[in-house]
Amino acid sequence: MPETVPDPAAVRLGYHGSPKVADTLTRLAAASGVPATPLPYDITAPFDGIRTRTLDLMIVKFALRESDIALSRVLSQDPRAVVVAATHPLAAHSAVSVEDLAGLDLFGKPPGTLPDYVWDEVVPPHTPKGRPLTRTHVTGDIAAMMKLIAHGEAAHLSLLSLADVAPPHIRVVPVHDLPPAPVTLAWARGHALPGHVQRYLTAAEQEASR
User: Fold this and answer.
1) How far apart are CA 169 and CA 153, in angstroms?
2) H-type helices in the chain, by residue range?
3) Which of 34, 83, 115, 166 has the most other CB atoms within 10 Å of its CB?
4) What are the boundaries of the signal sequence (predicted)?
């Protein structure tokens, strides 16, 4: 596949997981007239793109506490879900409780620089009732994760948007008793955004506040 070459007039927009989330935010920013080029970022080094300014903005889910990263207002929400094999007992449910995930082999924090506190939001160490969640498997690659899940070796507590990239033998089942993840845009603090990037950001925030 040829490498994506960003249009210099477009926002270089980092995303992880579903590119449809990037499309949703660009629709929010439509009034700016500024296009965006969605570019995947590596979850093992998620902030490198904005810190080195090879990305203008990146899509963030869950709150960040990084002193050098600024965040937009909340632009949308991504409901919680569990990713399981189509043959898994939970796959037939229309929705499940996070309590149902205690005892399953889930995923631990990917290798690299993703902060521990972010992963604790993605896959909490305990359920709301205090039951431990077993965070066994470690990978930073979605394809490798899906392979483990498809073989019945793991499940992943994640986000409903993963349904956009899940293969046919995988099911993404809503988790009804965890709050959705807030979706924001992030950029490097202390560096003025180029004019077209600022217009995109402002338009997205204004539309989301309607």
Assistant:
1) 14
2) 19-28, 48-51, 116-122, 142-150, 195-208
3) 83
4) none
Maximum CA pair distance of the chain? 51
Let me know if domain 80-174 sits in CATH 3.40.190.290: yes
Model pLDDT for residues 146-190, shown as the tens digit of each residue: 999 999 999 999 999 999 999 999 999 999 999 999 999 999 999
For the record, the structure tokens of 76 come out as 């949308």
Which tokens sit at 78? 């991504």
67: which residues sit within 8 A by CB, 6+ positions away? Answer: 189
Instruction: Determine the Cα–Cα distance for residues 132 and 126; give it in Å rounded to an integer.
Output: 4
Average pLDDT value for the chain: 95
Superfamily assignment of 11-75+181-208 in CATH?
A: Periplasmic binding protein-like II (3.40.190.10)
Beta bridge partners of 134: 105
Residue carrying structure tokens 């569990």:
82
Can you tell me the mean pLDDT for 82-87? Answer: 98
Give me the phi and psi of 85, to 5 degrees please.
-65, 150
Residue 41: which residues within 8 A CB-CB, separation 6 or more? 14, 15, 16, 48, 49, 55, 58
Answer yes or no: pTM beyond 0.90: yes
The label of the residue with tokens 């963030």 reads 60
